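Lab channel / #folding
Pinned by the channel admin:
"Please post every new chain as: sequence first, then the structure tokens as a reply. Keep commentary short and put observations after the output so the thread stays searchable."

First post following the new format, from NK:
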Amino acid sequence: MEKLDRYDRILLTTLQKNGRASNVELSEQASLSAPQCYRRVRRLEMDGIIRGYTAQVVPSSLGLDVVAFVSLTIDREQFKNVRDLEKVIRDFPEILECYTISGDFDYLLKVVSTDLRSFSAFLTDRLMQVPGVARMRSMICLEEIKPASPLPLPALS
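Reply from TO:
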């Protein structure tokens, strides 16, 4: 992958703030022509640097009033089936994000639910029933202080 230059960084910074920015808006920010911006953005997409574009929706506006973080430990005897467990995790729409982590747990999940009762039912009746899940701990989010933010771009060297 080519090293990102100053123009790529400007385009990435702009698109992280406004994924709907037009090529004309991008060209104004980067001081490049709109066709140049188009080609550069397409290259960033093709290189896998830009993963996609989404709308950031406030969970509570959809009735998803519970946001929680769930730590999972997998059963060591089931470790050979870990990819099957990960597929099941990917298929749960309530799980927004999943990371393998170091420390006392194996995975950290970000989960949404309509209320505490449905969150408890999700944990007990669905997540804990996944083969390989040995232990879990949940933490309910009380308040969002800083929502998902644009990635900081390293300085040019």
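NK: The mean pLDDT is 94.
TO: also worth noting, Residues 34-46 form the longest helix (13 residues).
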